[in-house]
C-alpha cells in the first residue's frame, strides 16, 4: 500500500492513510463525486469496518475484497443512502457475511433531473445507529455523529483512537456539499456544521476529495460562506423580486453548466430557510424580500 494522507489516488488500489485507515477509490468520477467515491477500511487487526462501500460496481467490489484480504468485516457502515455511497453494501454483505450498520434507510423518488446522485431504494441496514452509538473492533471504535443537512439521515463516524472523522458528504475539502430540498435542509446543515466546529477532530476523511487537516478552519469558512450566500440573496431580492434562475445567474457567474442545477437547489434551500424565519415569501415563481 502507498502511504500518505493525500496520496495520488488510483482507482481500485488500497492506500494506507494511517495505521488504522486505508482508502479504496471507486471508478465513478463526476462533477459531484470529484475523482470518485472513497471507501474507507478501518482497522489493522483481525477485523475491520468498511465506511461508504460505494456504488454496486464489480471492479470496486473486487478491489474491496482484495483490500480486506481475508479479515473479518465487523460492520459495513454508510454515511447516507445516495447511490454513490450505499449500493455496494448489499453485495458486500453477501460476500463477507458482515452486517450493514449505520444510517437509517431513506429513499426519496426523483422527480425530473437531479443535481446529485439519486437515493438507493434497496438499502436495508441490519442495525441503525443513533447519535453517539458505536461499532467496535480490535483496536478501533466508530462513534456515529448525526449530521443532517445534505440528507436527513446523514451520519459522520468518529475514530477516537486517532482523532479522525469520516465526514461522508457533509464536509469535503474540494467543494461545498449540495443541500437539495425537500430532504436536504439548510437549517439542519448549518446546525450540523456548528456541531463539527465545536469538536476538535484532528483530520477529516471525506467520501470525495482529499483529507482535511485544518478541520475547524475549514468548517468556520464554510459556515461563513453559507451566511454570505444568504446575505447575497437578501441583497438581490431587496433590489427586486426574482426567480431562482435569475438569482443563480447573478450569484454564480461563470459557473460550470453541469453545476447550475445544484446551485439552484442550494439557493432554494436558503430561501426555504429564510421563509421560515419570515425574511422572504414566494409570489408565483418570484421570491420577495419581506424583512
UniProtKB/TrEMBL annotation:
Superkingdom per UniProt: Bacteria
Protein name: MBL fold metallo-hydrolase
Organism of derivation: Croceicoccus esteveae
Coiled-coil ranges from the UniProt annotation: none
Domain Metallo-beta-lactamase: 36-208
Gene3D superfamilies the record matches: Ribonuclease Z/Hydroxyacylglutathione hydrolase-like, Winged helix-like DNA-binding domain superfamily/Winged helix DNA-binding domain
Amino acid at each position: 500500500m502507498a502511504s500518505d494522507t493525500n496520496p495520488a489516488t488510483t482507482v481500485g488500489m488500497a492506500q494506507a492513510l494511517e495505521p488504522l485507515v486505508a482508502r479504496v477509490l471507486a471508478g465513478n468520477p463526476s462533477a459531484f463525486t470529484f475523482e470518485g467515491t472513497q471507501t474507507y477500511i478501518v482497522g489493522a487487526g483481525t477485523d475491520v469496518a468498511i465506511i461508504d462501500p460505494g456504488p454496486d460496481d464489480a471492479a470496486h467490489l473486487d478491489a474491496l475484497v482484495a483490500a480486506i484480504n481475508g479479515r473479518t468485516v465487523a460492520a459495513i457502515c454508510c454515511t447516507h443512502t445516495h447511490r454513490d455511497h450505499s449500493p455496494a453494501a448489499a453485495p458486500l454483505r453477501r460476500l463477507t457475511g458482515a452486517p450493514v450498520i449505520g444510517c437509517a434507510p431513506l429513499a426519496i423518488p426523483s422527480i425530473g433531473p437531479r443535481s446529485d446522485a439519486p437515493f438507493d431504494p434497496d438499502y436495508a441496514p441490519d442495525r441503525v445507529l443513533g447519535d453517539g452509538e458505536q461499532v467496535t473492533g480490535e483496536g478501533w471504535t466508530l462513534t456515529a455523529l448525526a449530521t443532517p443537512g445534505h440528507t436527513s439521515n446523514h451520519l459522520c463516524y468518529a475514530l477516537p483512537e486517532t482523532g479522525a472523522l469520516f465526514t461522508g458528504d457533509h464536509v469535503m475539502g474540494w467543494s461545498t456539499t449540495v443541500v437539495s430540498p425537500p430532504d436536504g435542509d439548510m437549517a439542519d446543515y448549518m446546525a450540523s456544521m456548528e456541531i463539527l466546529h465545536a469538536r476538535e477532530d484532528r483530520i477529516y476523511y471525506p467520501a470525495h476529495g482529499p483529507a482535511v487537516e485544518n478541520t475547524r478552519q475549514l468548517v468556520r469558512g464554510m459556515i461563513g460562506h453559507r451566511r454570505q450566500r444568504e446575505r447575497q440573496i437578501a441583497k438581490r431580492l431587496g433590489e427586486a423580486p426574482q426567480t431562482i434562475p435569475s438569482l443563480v445567474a447573478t450569484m454564480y457567474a461563470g459557473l460550470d453548466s453541469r453545476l447550475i442545477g445544484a446551485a439552484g437547489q442550494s439557493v432554494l434551500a436558503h430561501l426555504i430557510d429564510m421563509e421560515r424565519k419570515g425574511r422572504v415569501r414566494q409570489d408565483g415563481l418570484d421570491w420577495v424580500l419581506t424583512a
